[in-house]
Amino acid sequence: MASDKKAKRIGIVTAGGDCPGINAAIRGVGKTAILEYGMEVIGISSGFLGLINHEYVELDETQLSGILTLGGTILGTSRENPFKKSSSVNSIDKPKLIRKHYKEMGLDALVCIGGNGTQRTAGLLSEEGLNIIGIPKTIDNDVWGTDITFGFDSALLIATDAIDRLHTTANSHKRIMVIEVMGHHAGWLALYSGMAGGGDVILIPEIEFDINIVAKYLTKRALNKKPYSIVVVAEGIPCPKGKKAASYIAEQIQELTNLETRETILGYIQRGGSPSPMDRLLATRYGAYAVELIAKEKFGLMVSSLGDTITDVPLKEVAGKLRTVPKDHPLIEKAERMGVCFGNCVV
Protein backbone atom coordinates (compact mmCIF):
# COMPACT_ATOMS: atom_id res chain seq x y z
CA MET A 1 0.00 0.00 0.00
CA ALA A 2 1.43 3.38 -1.03
CA SER A 3 2.58 5.78 1.67
CA ASP A 4 1.12 9.28 2.15
CA LYS A 5 4.64 10.66 1.86
CA LYS A 6 6.18 11.58 -1.50
CA ALA A 7 6.78 8.37 -3.43
CA LYS A 8 10.37 7.18 -3.48
CA ARG A 9 12.18 7.15 -6.82
CA ILE A 10 14.59 4.24 -7.19
CA GLY A 11 17.09 3.27 -9.85
CA ILE A 12 18.12 -0.20 -11.02
CA VAL A 13 21.51 -0.94 -12.54
CA THR A 14 22.71 -4.31 -13.89
CA ALA A 15 26.47 -4.59 -14.22
CA GLY A 16 29.19 -7.11 -15.02
CA GLY A 17 28.66 -10.33 -16.97
CA ASP A 18 25.15 -11.33 -17.93
CA CYS A 19 23.51 -14.42 -16.46
CA PRO A 20 20.04 -16.00 -16.37
CA GLY A 21 17.71 -14.38 -13.85
CA ILE A 22 18.69 -10.71 -14.13
CA ASN A 23 15.40 -9.77 -15.77
CA ALA A 24 13.53 -11.73 -13.10
CA ALA A 25 15.34 -9.62 -10.48
CA ILE A 26 14.53 -6.38 -12.34
CA ARG A 27 10.90 -7.49 -12.42
CA GLY A 28 10.96 -8.41 -8.72
CA VAL A 29 12.31 -4.98 -7.81
CA GLY A 30 10.10 -3.04 -10.19
CA LYS A 31 6.75 -4.73 -9.57
CA THR A 32 7.18 -4.69 -5.78
CA ALA A 33 8.22 -1.03 -5.86
CA ILE A 34 5.34 0.07 -8.11
CA LEU A 35 2.48 -2.14 -6.92
CA GLU A 36 3.20 -2.48 -3.21
CA TYR A 37 4.88 0.82 -2.37
CA GLY A 38 3.82 3.21 -5.15
CA MET A 39 7.43 4.02 -5.99
CA GLU A 40 8.80 5.33 -9.26
CA VAL A 41 11.32 3.07 -10.98
CA ILE A 42 14.21 4.13 -13.23
CA GLY A 43 16.23 1.67 -15.33
CA ILE A 44 19.88 2.68 -15.80
CA SER A 45 21.35 1.71 -19.20
CA SER A 46 24.54 -0.31 -19.69
CA GLY A 47 25.65 -0.79 -16.11
CA PHE A 48 27.55 1.97 -14.31
CA LEU A 49 28.29 3.47 -17.73
CA GLY A 50 24.66 4.61 -17.81
CA LEU A 51 25.13 6.48 -14.53
CA ILE A 52 28.24 8.16 -15.93
CA ASN A 53 26.58 9.07 -19.25
CA HIS A 54 23.20 9.93 -17.69
CA GLU A 55 21.36 7.32 -19.75
CA TYR A 56 18.20 5.88 -18.28
CA VAL A 57 14.57 5.02 -18.94
CA GLU A 58 11.52 5.23 -16.70
CA LEU A 59 9.98 1.79 -16.15
CA ASP A 60 6.30 1.10 -15.66
CA GLU A 61 4.51 -2.14 -14.89
CA THR A 62 3.81 -2.84 -18.58
CA GLN A 63 7.53 -2.83 -19.41
CA LEU A 64 8.14 -5.32 -16.61
CA SER A 65 5.56 -7.80 -17.89
CA GLY A 66 6.81 -10.79 -19.87
CA ILE A 67 10.48 -10.51 -18.83
CA LEU A 68 10.49 -13.15 -16.06
CA THR A 69 11.66 -15.90 -18.42
CA LEU A 70 14.01 -13.81 -20.56
CA GLY A 71 17.76 -14.30 -20.41
CA GLY A 72 20.19 -11.38 -20.48
CA THR A 73 19.13 -7.97 -19.19
CA ILE A 74 16.65 -5.52 -20.70
CA LEU A 75 18.76 -2.67 -19.30
CA GLY A 76 22.01 -3.79 -20.88
CA THR A 77 25.27 -4.20 -19.00
CA SER A 78 28.96 -3.34 -19.09
CA ARG A 79 32.09 -3.98 -17.05
CA GLU A 80 32.67 -0.27 -16.43
CA ASN A 81 34.40 0.30 -13.08
CA PRO A 82 33.97 3.98 -12.14
CA PHE A 83 36.56 3.71 -9.36
CA LYS A 84 39.34 2.34 -11.58
CA LYS A 85 42.14 4.89 -11.74
CA SER A 86 42.93 6.24 -15.19
CA SER A 87 46.45 7.13 -16.34
CA SER A 88 45.09 10.05 -18.37
CA VAL A 89 45.82 13.53 -17.00
CA ASN A 90 42.40 14.72 -18.20
CA SER A 91 40.52 11.73 -16.82
CA ILE A 92 36.96 12.34 -15.61
CA ASP A 93 36.10 12.01 -11.93
CA LYS A 94 33.54 9.27 -12.56
CA PRO A 95 32.33 8.83 -8.95
CA LYS A 96 31.68 12.59 -8.77
CA LEU A 97 29.77 12.41 -12.06
CA ILE A 98 27.70 9.48 -10.77
CA ARG A 99 26.81 11.43 -7.59
CA LYS A 100 25.77 14.38 -9.77
CA HIS A 101 23.59 12.30 -12.09
CA TYR A 102 22.10 10.34 -9.16
CA LYS A 103 20.83 13.67 -7.78
CA GLU A 104 19.71 14.96 -11.19
CA MET A 105 17.67 11.79 -11.72
CA GLY A 106 16.02 12.47 -8.37
CA LEU A 107 16.88 9.05 -7.01
CA ASP A 108 16.23 8.13 -3.40
CA ALA A 109 18.03 4.77 -3.74
CA LEU A 110 19.92 2.65 -6.26
CA VAL A 111 19.68 -1.14 -6.59
CA CYS A 112 22.89 -2.66 -7.97
CA ILE A 113 22.47 -6.14 -9.48
CA GLY A 114 25.77 -7.90 -10.12
CA GLY A 115 28.62 -10.11 -8.97
CA ASN A 116 31.75 -9.44 -6.94
CA GLY A 117 32.96 -6.43 -8.91
CA THR A 118 29.53 -4.86 -8.88
CA GLN A 119 29.09 -5.36 -5.14
CA ARG A 120 32.52 -3.83 -4.52
CA THR A 121 31.55 -0.78 -6.60
CA ALA A 122 28.17 -0.65 -4.83
CA GLY A 123 29.97 -0.55 -1.48
CA LEU A 124 32.19 2.30 -2.63
CA LEU A 125 29.19 4.26 -3.92
CA SER A 126 27.55 3.72 -0.54
CA GLU A 127 30.63 5.26 1.08
CA GLU A 128 30.22 8.20 -1.33
CA GLY A 129 26.85 8.92 0.30
CA LEU A 130 24.47 7.22 -2.13
CA ASN A 131 21.64 5.01 -0.81
CA ILE A 132 22.62 1.61 -2.17
CA ILE A 133 21.19 -1.91 -2.05
CA GLY A 134 23.09 -4.77 -3.71
CA ILE A 135 21.62 -7.94 -5.24
CA PRO A 136 24.14 -10.76 -5.91
CA LYS A 137 24.16 -12.57 -9.24
CA THR A 138 26.76 -14.77 -10.90
CA ILE A 139 26.93 -18.27 -12.31
CA ASP A 140 30.18 -18.79 -10.35
CA ASN A 141 28.30 -18.63 -7.01
CA ASP A 142 31.34 -16.95 -5.45
CA VAL A 143 29.86 -13.80 -3.86
CA TRP A 144 30.75 -13.66 -0.18
CA GLY A 145 27.91 -13.31 2.33
CA THR A 146 25.27 -15.44 0.61
CA ASP A 147 24.79 -19.19 0.29
CA ILE A 148 23.72 -18.86 -3.34
CA THR A 149 23.55 -16.36 -6.18
CA PHE A 150 20.94 -16.48 -8.90
CA GLY A 151 22.38 -17.62 -12.22
CA PHE A 152 24.19 -20.55 -10.62
CA ASP A 153 21.32 -23.04 -10.85
CA SER A 154 20.69 -22.24 -14.53
CA ALA A 155 24.38 -22.66 -15.38
CA LEU A 156 24.45 -25.89 -13.37
CA LEU A 157 21.60 -27.30 -15.49
CA ILE A 158 23.40 -26.35 -18.71
CA ALA A 159 26.75 -27.79 -17.59
CA THR A 160 25.18 -31.00 -16.30
CA ASP A 161 23.25 -31.47 -19.53
CA ALA A 162 26.48 -31.07 -21.50
CA ILE A 163 28.25 -33.65 -19.34
CA ASP A 164 25.31 -36.04 -19.78
CA ARG A 165 25.67 -35.72 -23.56
CA LEU A 166 29.43 -36.29 -23.42
CA HIS A 167 28.89 -39.60 -21.63
CA THR A 168 27.26 -41.09 -24.72
CA THR A 169 29.89 -39.94 -27.22
CA ALA A 170 32.74 -40.86 -24.84
CA ASN A 171 31.29 -44.36 -24.45
CA SER A 172 30.77 -44.77 -28.20
CA HIS A 173 34.39 -43.93 -29.01
CA LYS A 174 35.98 -45.25 -25.79
CA ARG A 175 37.58 -41.87 -25.11
CA ILE A 176 38.47 -39.65 -22.20
CA MET A 177 36.42 -36.45 -22.43
CA VAL A 178 37.60 -33.27 -20.69
CA ILE A 179 34.93 -30.61 -20.22
CA GLU A 180 35.74 -27.07 -19.05
CA VAL A 181 33.13 -25.07 -17.16
CA MET A 182 33.30 -21.50 -15.86
CA GLY A 183 34.80 -20.55 -12.51
CA HIS A 184 37.90 -18.32 -12.43
CA HIS A 185 38.55 -18.47 -8.70
CA ALA A 186 35.84 -20.76 -7.32
CA GLY A 187 35.00 -24.33 -8.30
CA TRP A 188 31.33 -24.46 -7.32
CA LEU A 189 30.08 -25.03 -10.86
CA ALA A 190 32.70 -27.67 -11.65
CA LEU A 191 32.09 -29.48 -8.35
CA TYR A 192 28.30 -29.49 -8.57
CA SER A 193 28.03 -30.27 -12.30
CA GLY A 194 30.80 -32.85 -12.00
CA MET A 195 28.92 -34.65 -9.28
CA ALA A 196 25.49 -34.23 -10.89
CA GLY A 197 26.86 -35.42 -14.25
CA GLY A 198 28.82 -38.39 -12.92
CA GLY A 199 32.31 -37.01 -13.53
CA ASP A 200 35.21 -39.34 -12.75
CA VAL A 201 37.76 -36.56 -12.22
CA ILE A 202 36.90 -33.05 -10.96
CA LEU A 203 39.57 -30.34 -10.88
CA ILE A 204 38.85 -27.05 -9.08
CA PRO A 205 41.02 -24.02 -8.20
CA GLU A 206 40.71 -24.65 -4.44
CA ILE A 207 42.37 -28.08 -4.50
CA GLU A 208 45.97 -28.39 -5.70
CA PHE A 209 46.21 -31.29 -8.12
CA ASP A 210 48.99 -33.43 -9.58
CA ILE A 211 48.43 -34.31 -13.25
CA ASN A 212 50.43 -37.51 -12.75
CA ILE A 213 47.92 -38.67 -10.13
CA VAL A 214 45.10 -37.89 -12.56
CA ALA A 215 46.87 -39.86 -15.32
CA LYS A 216 47.45 -42.88 -13.05
CA TYR A 217 43.82 -42.82 -11.96
CA LEU A 218 42.57 -42.75 -15.56
CA THR A 219 44.99 -45.49 -16.61
CA LYS A 220 43.76 -47.64 -13.72
CA ARG A 221 40.15 -47.13 -14.90
CA ALA A 222 41.11 -48.26 -18.41
CA LEU A 223 42.90 -51.35 -17.07
CA ASN A 224 39.79 -52.14 -15.01
CA LYS A 225 37.79 -52.28 -18.25
CA LYS A 226 36.08 -48.91 -17.73
CA PRO A 227 35.53 -47.98 -21.39
CA TYR A 228 35.64 -44.20 -20.96
CA SER A 229 36.15 -41.40 -18.43
CA ILE A 230 34.75 -37.91 -17.86
CA VAL A 231 37.04 -35.16 -16.53
CA VAL A 232 35.38 -31.90 -15.39
CA VAL A 233 37.66 -28.88 -14.92
CA ALA A 234 37.05 -25.31 -13.77
CA GLU A 235 38.50 -22.68 -16.11
CA GLY A 236 40.52 -21.19 -13.24
CA ILE A 237 42.72 -24.21 -12.41
CA PRO A 238 46.48 -23.56 -12.73
CA CYS A 239 47.82 -24.03 -16.26
CA PRO A 240 50.50 -22.43 -18.47
CA LYS A 241 49.87 -18.87 -19.61
CA GLY A 242 47.87 -18.70 -22.80
CA LYS A 243 46.49 -22.22 -22.42
CA LYS A 244 42.84 -23.07 -21.87
CA ALA A 245 42.33 -25.39 -18.91
CA ALA A 246 40.57 -28.12 -20.89
CA SER A 247 43.12 -28.06 -23.72
CA TYR A 248 46.05 -28.23 -21.32
CA ILE A 249 44.59 -31.07 -19.25
CA ALA A 250 43.58 -33.05 -22.36
CA GLU A 251 47.09 -32.70 -23.84
CA GLN A 252 48.70 -33.83 -20.59
CA ILE A 253 46.37 -36.81 -20.19
CA GLN A 254 46.94 -37.94 -23.81
CA GLU A 255 50.70 -37.66 -23.38
CA LEU A 256 50.88 -39.44 -20.02
CA THR A 257 48.33 -42.21 -20.66
CA ASN A 258 48.39 -42.66 -24.45
CA LEU A 259 44.59 -42.85 -24.19
CA GLU A 260 42.52 -40.99 -26.78
CA THR A 261 41.41 -37.71 -25.18
CA ARG A 262 39.21 -34.87 -26.40
CA GLU A 263 38.25 -31.54 -24.83
CA THR A 264 35.06 -29.46 -24.81
CA ILE A 265 34.89 -25.85 -23.60
CA LEU A 266 31.34 -24.75 -22.77
CA GLY A 267 32.16 -21.03 -22.60
CA TYR A 268 29.44 -18.39 -22.77
CA ILE A 269 26.66 -20.87 -23.44
CA GLN A 270 26.57 -21.30 -19.64
CA ARG A 271 25.49 -17.68 -19.20
CA GLY A 272 22.77 -17.53 -21.82
CA GLY A 273 19.16 -18.50 -22.18
CA SER A 274 16.12 -18.63 -19.97
CA PRO A 275 16.64 -18.90 -16.18
CA SER A 276 15.72 -22.09 -14.36
CA PRO A 277 12.59 -22.07 -12.17
CA MET A 278 14.80 -21.93 -9.06
CA ASP A 279 16.68 -18.89 -10.37
CA ARG A 280 13.42 -17.15 -11.28
CA LEU A 281 12.17 -17.66 -7.74
CA LEU A 282 15.43 -16.63 -6.08
CA ALA A 283 15.84 -13.51 -8.24
CA THR A 284 12.23 -12.51 -7.57
CA ARG A 285 12.67 -12.95 -3.81
CA TYR A 286 15.91 -10.95 -3.88
CA GLY A 287 14.24 -8.14 -5.83
CA ALA A 288 11.23 -7.94 -3.53
CA TYR A 289 13.41 -7.95 -0.40
CA ALA A 290 15.62 -5.17 -1.82
CA VAL A 291 12.56 -2.93 -2.12
CA GLU A 292 11.48 -3.78 1.44
CA LEU A 293 14.87 -2.54 2.65
CA ILE A 294 14.48 0.67 0.66
CA ALA A 295 10.98 1.22 2.08
CA LYS A 296 12.47 0.86 5.58
CA GLU A 297 15.30 3.22 4.54
CA LYS A 298 17.96 0.63 5.30
CA PHE A 299 20.90 1.12 2.95
CA GLY A 300 24.49 0.00 2.42
CA LEU A 301 23.33 -3.61 2.39
CA MET A 302 23.44 -6.61 0.04
CA VAL A 303 20.50 -8.99 -0.10
CA SER A 304 21.55 -12.56 0.68
CA SER A 305 20.23 -16.07 1.21
CA LEU A 306 21.24 -18.01 4.31
CA GLY A 307 19.60 -21.39 4.42
CA ASP A 308 16.07 -20.74 3.16
CA THR A 309 15.95 -17.24 4.68
CA ILE A 310 16.31 -14.08 2.60
CA THR A 311 18.26 -11.59 4.68
CA ASP A 312 21.00 -8.99 4.22
CA VAL A 313 24.65 -8.30 4.96
CA PRO A 314 26.59 -5.00 5.03
CA LEU A 315 28.19 -4.20 1.66
CA LYS A 316 31.39 -3.17 3.45
CA GLU A 317 31.77 -6.78 4.64
CA VAL A 318 31.29 -8.21 1.13
CA ALA A 319 33.85 -6.14 -0.77
CA GLY A 320 37.13 -7.80 -1.63
CA LYS A 321 36.06 -11.27 -0.48
CA LEU A 322 35.35 -14.44 -2.43
CA ARG A 323 33.19 -17.39 -1.44
CA THR A 324 35.28 -20.37 -2.49
CA VAL A 325 34.75 -24.11 -2.03
CA PRO A 326 36.10 -25.30 1.36
CA LYS A 327 38.48 -28.24 1.00
CA ASP A 328 36.43 -30.10 3.60
CA HIS A 329 33.12 -29.45 1.86
CA PRO A 330 30.73 -32.39 2.52
CA LEU A 331 30.20 -32.95 -1.21
CA ILE A 332 33.95 -33.36 -1.76
CA GLU A 333 34.18 -35.86 1.09
CA LYS A 334 31.22 -37.81 -0.30
CA ALA A 335 32.67 -37.74 -3.81
CA GLU A 336 36.04 -39.10 -2.67
CA ARG A 337 34.33 -41.97 -0.85
CA MET A 338 32.57 -42.79 -4.13
CA GLY A 339 35.87 -42.93 -6.01
CA VAL A 340 35.92 -39.49 -7.65
CA CYS A 341 39.46 -38.16 -8.16
CA PHE A 342 40.35 -34.54 -7.36
CA GLY A 343 43.98 -35.03 -8.41
CA ASN A 344 45.38 -34.70 -4.89
CA CYS A 345 45.55 -38.33 -3.77
CA VAL A 346 45.59 -41.80 -5.31
CA VAL A 347 42.06 -43.24 -5.26
Model description:
Helices cover 39% and strands 17% of the residues. By secondary structure, it is of the alpha/beta class. It has 2 domains: 176 residues, Rossmann fold (3-Layer(aba) Sandwich); 129 residues, Phosphofructokinase domain (Rossmann fold), CATH 3.40.50.460. The longest helix has 22 residues. The model has no long low-confidence stretch (mean pLDDT 94).
Q: Would you kindly provide a brief summary of this structure?
A:
With about 350 residues, this protein is α/β, with parallel strands linked by helices.
> What composes the largest sheet?
7 strands, mixed
What do the pLDDT scores average to?
A: 94
CATH structural fold name of the largest domain: Rossmann fold
- Rg, alpha carbons: 22 Å
CATH class of the largest domain: Alpha Beta
User: What is the subunit organization of this protein?
Assistant: single chain
Q: How widely separated are the two ends?
A: 61 Å
Low-confidence stretches: none
Helix content: 25-40%
The tally of beta strands, per DSSP, is 11
- Strand numbers in spatial order across the main sheet: 3-2-1-4-5-10-11
Number of helices: 12
